[in-house]
Amino acid sequence: MKPLTAEWIDKAESDFAVMTRESRVRKHPAFDVVCFHAQQCIEKYLKARLCEADFEAGRLHDLVALLDRVLACEPLWEVFRADCAYLSDFAVAYRYPGESSSREQARDAVKRCRRIRLVARQSMGVREDPDPRARDS
């Protein structure tokens, strides 16, 4: 694995950890944070896959646009188009007044993030962490 790919994965995993921890909070949960970090995790995994395939990711934040680039090396990832479109909305709009995520949206974002993350990690040969708290369900 290329060093830059590994860096993208490390950053994606940091977002995954924040999303996971915050999604478990019972008192005053921050649903916007859960959704934002779900989006960020997948953005970085898509960029990691592009990097590993020698494709330029650029400074794109739109997950659908990134997915379109990834399809050149992972055509079966087309199944994630709806998930990427859903998660993309959380990159910007929900960070500002006027939009707020619900508990249901946060749960849905986590589920979609976990699904894409698992396939991305498998595609790049990344072993699952032996820590059961970090495993996908």
Count of individual helical segments:
5
Q: Helices and strands, in N-to-C order?
A: HHHHH
Q: Might you state the CATH topology name?
A: Four Helix Bundle (Hemerythrin (Met), subunit A)
Largest sheet: none
- Percent strand equals under 5%
CATH C-level category:
Mainly Alpha
Query: What separation lies between the terminal Cα atoms?
Result: 26 Å
Tally of domains: 1
> What oligomerization state is this entry in?
single chain
Q: How confident overall, as mean pLDDT?
A: 92
Structure, explained:
The structure is a single chain. 58% of the residues lie in helices and 0% in strands. It is an all-alpha fold and 137 residues long. The protein is globular, with a radius of gyration of 14 Å.
Descriptive keywords:
globular, 0% strand, disordered C terminus, 58% helix, 137 residues, Four Helix Bundle (Hemerythrin (Met), subunit A), 5 helices, mainly alpha
Furnish the topology, listing elements before pairings.
Elements: H1 3-23, H2 31-52, H3 63-70, H4 81-88, H5 103-123
